[in-house]
Write a structure and sequence with these properties.
The protein is α/β, with parallel strands linked by helices. The chain is built from nine helices and ten strands.
Length: about 280
Amino acid sequence: MKRILLPTDFSRNSWNAIRYAQSLFRGHACEFFLLNAFQVGSSGLVTTMGRTHETRLYRSLKKESERGLANILALMSKSDENQDHRIKTYSMAAHLVQAVATVVKSKDIDLIIMGTKGASGLKEVFLGSNAHKIIKEIHACPIILVPDEFELYGSFEAMVLATGYEHLFHAQELKPIIEISNNFGAKVLVTHAGEASALTSHQEGVRKHLAQQLNTVKHEFVFLKKESSVNETIQKMIGERGNIHMVAMVNYWHSFFEKLTQEPVIKKVAFNTTVPFLVVHLFE
C-alpha cells in the first residue's frame, strides 16, 4: 500500500493538490498522511509573561491547525469513492520542511504530493519557496508538485521524462515513472533538448540502456530543438502536444543541463510548469 504525504496550508492550491492525489490513485489502495505545520515563533522573552504568551499562542495555533485538518479530512472522505483510501492527520509545531522530514522518516513515506504556484522574476523568492526547499532537502522519496488549478480528469495520456542522457538511471529512480505509466497506460516521452546526432558515445549508451529499462511501458524518444532555455523547451512541448499530463526529472547536482546552460532547470520547471512535476532524487 502506497504511503503518500500531503502537506497542506488549507489554501485552495493545497486542496487542489489533495484532490489530484486522490484522482492519481483513484484505482489503488493507499494511505494518505495529511500534514499541517505551524510555527509559534520566539518572542525572545524569557520572562514568565513571555512564556505564557507563547503558550497561549501555541494552543491557539494548534487548535486552528487541528480544526483545519478535521475540515479537510471531512472533505476528502466525502469526495473520495475509493474505500481503500485511508487518511491520517498530523498537526506539528515546526517549520514545514522539518515537519515533512519527520513524517517521511517516521512513517516510511513513498511519495509527497503538494501544490505550488507558478511565479516569475523576484516573486520566485516568495511564491513556492517551501516547495523548492522540500525538493532540495528531502531526498528520501519522490515529490510531485501540482500547479495551481490543474485537474486530472479521466485520461492520462503521456508524461515527459526530461534527460540529458548523462546519467545512467537506477531502477529505483525509474520506479515511480514506470508505476504511473502502467497505472494509466500512459506513454513515457523521453525528451532531450538537442540533436540526436550530437549525442556522445556515453550519452548514446545511456539512451540504449534506458530503452531496455522502459521495455515494460509505452515509450518514445523525442529530440527537440533547444529554445532559449531547457525549461522553455519543455514548456513549449507541453503547449504544442496538448496531451502531456506530467513532467519527470531526476534531481542531482551538476547535471548535464546545468553544466551546459548554467540554468537551474529543476527550479525553473518547478515554478513554471503547467502540468504536475515529478522530481525523483538520485538513488544512493
